[in-house]
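Thread: "does anyone have the structure for this chain?"

Original post by V.I.:
We have the sequence but no experimental structure in hand. Need at least a predicted one for the grant figures.
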Amino acid sequence: MDKDKDIIHRKLDGELKKHETRVFQKKIKTDPALRVEYQSLKQVTETSEKVVKPVPPPADFKKRVIEDLDEKKAEKQ
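Reply from O.Q.:
Generated one for you, tokens below.
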């Protein structure tokens, strides 16, 4: 079922290729448990996208990330 959950999440994230989408659609037609899991997670995803507002990163986020990476790189040398 872990592979099934992975493909569900990839489907919801829009990451499946055309062939994978066809395989997934066939599978949910024949696997009731997978279909229920997909429909449940799809509903949660759609509701979350409507309710949760994106939070912008702090203005200095990029600068802090680059500084942190530079520090880590320096520690390795």
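V.I.: this helps a lot. The chain has one domain: 2-76.
O.Q.: and The chain has four helices and no strands.
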